Amino acid sequence: MGSEDFSLPAPAGVPYDYWYVTTTPAEVWEAASGEGLLERLGSVPGNHSPLFAPDLSVLVPGVQTLVSAAMSRLGRGGS
Is the pTM of this model over 0.85? Predict the structure, then answer.
């Protein structure tokens, strides 16, 4: 879902960035059923599922990436 939990991300003309950091463990993705990408995505538990079990190793690099992007957008450089 492109909007996730937001029905109106931003008014027209207002800059808006939406980031999605995947946290599906490789073994879960490899075991996912389906022929194509969308079918496989549909068979992997998402963040609103009680079966959701993220790969925690992506949290630190994901947060670093998001903070760097925010700092860049705000004109504060970043690294």
Answer: no
d(CA 19, CA 4) in angstroms, rounded, equals 11
The predicted-structure confidence for 35-54, as pLDDT tens digits, reads as follows 999 999 889 998 888 998 88
Joined together, the tokens standing for residue 7 give 């029905």
Domain boundaries, given as residue ranges, for the chain: 26-75
C-beta pairs of 50-56 under 8 Å, 24+ apart in sequence: 53/25, 53/28, 54/23, 54/24, 54/25, 55/23, 55/24, 55/25, 55/26, 56/23
Contact 45, 52 (CB under 8 A): yes
Provide the token pair at 14. Answer: 């207002």
